[in-house]
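I hope you will forgive my troubling you with a question about protein structure. Could you please explain, in whatever detail you think fit, how the structure tokens follow from the sequence? Thank you for your consideration; the sequence and its tokens are set out here.
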Amino acid sequence: MVLHELLGLPEREKHVVSLCGGGGKTTLMYVLARETKAIMPTALFTTTHIMTPSDADVVLSVPFSAEECRAAWREGKIASSGTFLSEERKFGAPGEDAMRFLCREASAVIIEADGARRLPVKFPAAREPVIRPETTHTIVVAGLSALGKKPEEIVPRYALAKNTVDLSGDSLTEKQMAELLWTGYGRFDPVFFINQADTSDLAQRGERICAM
């Protein structure tokens, strides 16, 4: 339960987590779900779209079936539901009834609530992210691989972001990344998860971003 503890999530109590931002949301979703699946009914789904889950410990209920989800929990597996989209391997949000059921009946629910086109840092539009009302914890993910890259190449909604945050310069700085995250997502009172700290230098840069 390492990440649950670090992120301030209750390890053995009801929680519904909405993941936002970019730079590793899907990976974090699966890690969090696997920390709880053996001890409490666990579910995952998206309110936007993700790659279709294909792991053996995730039971896809499509079309949605409450009994299939309960059977998955009895076997210590993760329940999920959604919609197969026309784009290859894409998986969209389930229906409202399925989302309400999973948020009500599962004890640990992990929701990918934002799209970032696999880019490391996100600035949301007014309609984003798509956060369920049942959410108890919001986590915003950002990848340190964004640093040093041209903002227009790695920031979804760049045109909107540059009207709010000073993104001048040839490459994204620590200060700009901190401002993007806080200005874009601070209103949700989230935990910020600075990801991709693959070297000691990146870890130090991530700590400076957190401090800002």
About this structure: Residues 25-36 form the longest helix (12 residues). The radius of gyration is 17 Å. The first strand starts at residue 15 and ends at 21. The chain is about 30% helix and 20% strand.
